[in-house]
Design brief:
With 343 residues, this protein is α/β, with parallel strands linked by helices. The protein has a single domain, classed as 3-Layer(aba) Sandwich (Rossmann fold). Helix content is 43%, strand content 19%. It contains 13 helices and 16 strands. A seven-stranded parallel β-sheet has the order 3-2-1-4-5-8-13, sandwiched between helices. A three-stranded mixed β-sheet has the order 14-11-16. Helix 1 packs across helix 8, helix 3 runs parallel beside helix 5 and helix 5 runs parallel beside helix 6. The longest helix is centred in the middle third of the chain and has 21 residues.
Length: 343
Amino acid sequence: MRFLITGGAGFIGVSAAAHYAKQGHSVTVLDNLSRRGTKDNLEWLQREYPAVRAVTADIRADRDALAAEAARCDVLLHLAAQVAVTTSVADPRTDFEINALGAFNVLEAARMAARPPIVLFSSTNKVYGGMEDAAVVEDGNRYRYAKLPEGASEERVLDFHSPYGCSKGAADQYVRDYARIYGMHTVVLRQSCIYGPHQFGIEDQGWIAWFSLRALLGQPVTVYGDGKQVRDVLYVDDLVAAFDAAIARIDRASGRIYNIGGGPAFTLSLLELIALIEKMSGEKLKHSFGGWRPGDQRVYISDIRRARAELGWEPKIRPEPGIARMREWMAANRETILRVYSA
């Protein structure tokens, strides 16, 4: 098959590109290379898999490049995004242009192709908002839902919160509707806390990577709130397996929305992550506490039963071995990471 991956030099994109290239598929990555670390990821990808094509383009403006690449692929993974809530608050226009307008441009490029490709969209659990109606109780060094043992399902009312939530939520609904209105094969994957190799941990873009990196460098972290906040976490290889499952079952998955996360079995609180990192490193992770960030949920856990039932998918890699793999990659690429952060 022929794959086009927007945001293909990001950590999820490069992981997916390597996976499909290794299987012998034709892979093109499209990225504007604006984020720190993307050039390094792309260099690694093309060194390991020379057949991978790279197109430097911006989904906001380079509509001709998008159209040309969409017309020659069978599967389009739309992963390009502005991914930080804090950045969206500081610069909502850029956030909108990348996440909402960019996704619209991608969809239109796919729709205008002679044979529209399958489109998988990387959405977010932030479309559910603060979930203030979901009661939360304190349980030791973590919080838990009082009445949602399986987590939050796709049937929840959408409640976009923050410019990031609004821009990704708008794209989420556009992707779904293009299946209904235009008969395209589109699938929305609402992701939760993805982590793994090639993730250059930045504080507001991946807390597992950020804490792991700071521990590796012997630097302290700030825990906002009391550290008992809980999220379900998913290793990137399990996410790519979800891509595979949706493609393989596209007749069933088309027009559908799926929560893709670790689910109730694969969860961590911030305090538990700190303890896990300390266990792995044999050293204390220096940390202090700051005030709660606005809108920070005590708990978010994905109900993944729909993906299990309809796609035959469920996560396999537990947090401890997954985080260990990420730490090994960080240790092996320490110099590159330091260079990226000093840029």
